[in-house]
Design goal:
Elements (H helix, E strand, L loop, with lengths): L44 H4 L21 H15 L2 H9 L2 H12 L5 H21 L4 H8 L3 H20 L1
Helix pairs in contact: 3-5
Protein name: Der GTPase-activating protein YihI
Keywords: GTPase activation, Ribosome biogenesis
Organism: Shewanella dokdonensis
């Protein structure tokens, strides 16, 4: 038997191919599927990532409302604080004032005060006195003077205290 060499030519019996068309004339069967993020999406997150998150935007960003700065805020807070203080709180605040205590210490030492300091001190003491009268608080110095009238009264108090101490020690 003789051997026949295979060829690529199909011959007359082979099916005919459609003629070739140019690439620009060809129509794709379907649109190419998008996969992944667009190029540069990591550096430009607002363009690609936040399509539906526009409603979740922070409302404070871009606000046109004026913002009060340091001194105005402090002044408004001081006004609110002054109106809420009761008479007792005002009295405590006046008595704990460091300037008042310093000036009173200077007076006790016998130093002379300037006219402005003296005037301020008198005003503060007058405020304290009026608040004490409003609250019905008596000055302790005046009550001590009344009770220290006689030495015999003090001696009697001492004797009663001594008697109570002795009774306690017996028990």
């Amino acid at each position: 038997m003789t051997r026949i060499k295979k060829t690529r030519k199909a011959g007359d019996a082979a099916p005919k191919h459609a003629p070739r068309t140019k690439k620009s004339e060809r129509v794709l069967a379907r649109k190419k599927q998008d996969s992944g993020n667009k190029a540069g999406s990591r550096q430009n997150p607002e363009g690609s990532a936040a399509k539906g998150s526009q409603a979740a935007k922070d409302p404070r960003i871009g606000s046109k409302k004026p913002v009060a700065l340091g001194t105005e805020v402090m002044a408004s807070q001081a006004k609110v604080a002054k109106t809420k203080l009761t008479d007792e709180q005002r009295l405590l605040q006046l008595e704990e004032d460091p300037r008042l205590n310093q000036l009173l210490d200077m007076l006790e030492e016998g130093r002379d005060l300037s006219a402005a300091d003296q005037q301020w001190l008198e005003q503060q003491l007058a405020k304290i006195e009026t608040l004490m009268q409003k609250l019905g608080i008596e000055d302790l110095d005046e009550t001590d003077i009344v009770s220290n009238d006689s030495d015999e009264a003090l001696l009697d108090k001492f004797d009663t205290g001594l008697a109570q101490l002795q009774n306690y020690q017996k028990e």
